Amino acid sequence: MKEAVGVPHRHLANAIQYILDEKNNEEKTEHGLYVGGNAGYDSGEILKTFLDTKELFGKKNGRQGYHFVISFAPGEVTADEAYQITREFCEKYLGDSYDHVFAVHTDKKHMHAHIIFNSVNRIDGYKYRYNKGDWKKYIQPITDQLCIQHGISPLKFEEDKKIGVSYASWNEKKNKKIGWTRIIQADVDWAVNHSDTLPEFIDQMHRFGYQVKAGKSKKKNITYLTYIYTDDDGRQHRRRSYNMPQGYSPEDIAKRIKQKSGSRMYEEIADLLEKKHTSIPVEIVKNTGTYRRMYQAVSYYRLPNPYAVRSGVRKDILNIDRLIDEVKYIRDNALTSKNAIEEREARLESQIEVLTRKKWNIKDSQESLSNEQIRLLDRKRELENELSQNPDDDKFEKLQDELEEVMTLIPEEIASDEDAVMVSDRIKNLRRELRMVKRIKENETSKENLKEKDKERNAKWKITN
After folding, report:
1. At residue 327, does pLDDT exceed 60?
2. Is 462 domain-assigned?
């Protein structure tokens, strides 16, 4: 879980709340029966424990935590067995070195457990790093041993590449992702429900910007429709009706128009979008161009005249989470005027410039090291590596004493490799934030133009009807 813009630990907080299932009165965990760990008893206390560790070692930014999911085959284990295996895994892999919480969810046919642990080691303050191959070297031997002990099949490793969001958000995207197939389905549904004949349906699709072509498949021996949409970037999105769920073939469309029944994908997407943005206080940001774009995307299939919205609304639907983050950023940072946005932009650019100079100063200093300083840096890395292995108390203190002595002999500006890494990470985060601010600025700059275009579209709509 990467650092979030504005509130660094936001994704971490959301993930903890999700696995504890507090919003649903802990139904998935049997009202907290299958929750364990070493960081507290509720999301507030657990998050505070995580943040206190980060504060103690001055590592509040960057990666915030890690999320493992252990999933068992249906019927393979009971909830009690899943809890025991998860607890034993945490004890063997994390021990007491990392703040952690785990919860077994019993709402699916397959038992599965979620483990969230802090990115900062609460003993020595070093950050957890997962390197390629660590699963095979360190984790699989533990899971294999536990599987043998409990008489179940070995676990297989599947890495989720979509890091940087809460598990709740990832899970929603995995199971309810809004992609082009779903958007095309929704557009077809809307056109069907606003047409009385097949020619009217085709006309409605043309108004949406679609080409609709009929074809005959010799291999399948069926007639089909191809729905073609060209987006603002000039890319075509094609879907043949036989590759879509039932209800989109020529025969199905004709039947649905006659009966005004069938799929309601547009209702499903509209409800999903509505749920995504309900936490934003409208009065604070409703006059911003970014909120205008988000509102049109959220309300698209609810609007009486969807043709009157900006042309890129479908692209906004695909990027709705980014728009929501931008609206929240506007709210959290009070960017309700063009001057405020430009001041924020200038401040970010200044911070990036300062940190970039610092980064190059560190690099220049390291390139001009003497042989003795290089030797000391090498020894420093060796000591830090030994300390990261969780030695016993006596050895730990001895290593710490030597490390403190070595640190006094190395120039402060090059003493920490991690400082250079942290500076680079901070620059990346600031550049990401700056890109967001520039998008917000662009939206505000083009807001008046959009209003004029909307007036033109509405005028054309009135003439047409």
Report:
1. yes
2. no
